[in-house]
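Technical note accompanying the year-one report. For the benefit of new consortium partners, we illustrate the data format agreed upon in the data management plan: each record pairs a sequence with a structure-token string. No post-processing was applied to the example shown here.
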Amino acid sequence: MKKPVLVLFIIVTAMIGIATPVAASQLIGGAMGYYDISSTPGGATVTVDGSVVGTTPTTASVFSTATPGHMIEVEKAGYQPWSQYYAGNPAEGEHIAVHASLARIPTIAPTPLPGSQKGFYQVRSDPAGAQVELDGTNYGLTPVTISVSSTGTPGHSITVSRSGYETWSQFYSGNPAAGQTIAVFASLTPVVQTGSIYVASSPAGASAVLDNGYDYLTTDGTFSGVSTGLHNVRVSKSGYQPYSTSIQVKPGGTSNVYATLIAN
């Protein structure tokens, strides 16, 4: 009776020895790539595509076959936020080094007059990281606190600007009192990055096609929400020769296409 038991033990052991390496090889690496994220100074909060993944130094894993492109943001109290967009995905098992050098948020004050008292403007913006000017002098990026003389010339103009957004400006009459902090918040509006194309034809009722099929309309009509840049418009109508042209679209503008169709 001992011999069948021994044979069964040997068969089971062999099956375990064969199966174990296969399962392990499937787990190692997988379809993951990695971002090794560090910062100066360390201990900053790291966000990848809107999800917090830890504090620097840390490693974030992403699927190599996922939708390509990732936004990495690094933030630490007392420092300006850092962000960078990385196109594509790391290859399977690849480690991409990401380092954020964080800039300390400045607190800049103009040279006070001897014996003068100071008040403050605390300037923030959405989004942060915008340039701040007070009376034409640059004071760094939001958020920033600016001190002014409470007994100086009253009235100050504050301007907040950032690439891709409309410039924000506000005049503040008087001065903050000694020790007073006036909160200033600038909600920045993105610059319009689209325009329109108005298409008319003679005769009307023709078919207008934008960019080889991206959009259609029947003349006369308007293509709205068209990205800035060069676009192709083709106008056709049964019994007439087709008309085609290229036209430039500017942010917030309307470009016009007038097609005079020639009968066949």
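Partners are asked to follow this layout when depositing records. Residues 1-29 have pLDDT under 50 and may be disordered.
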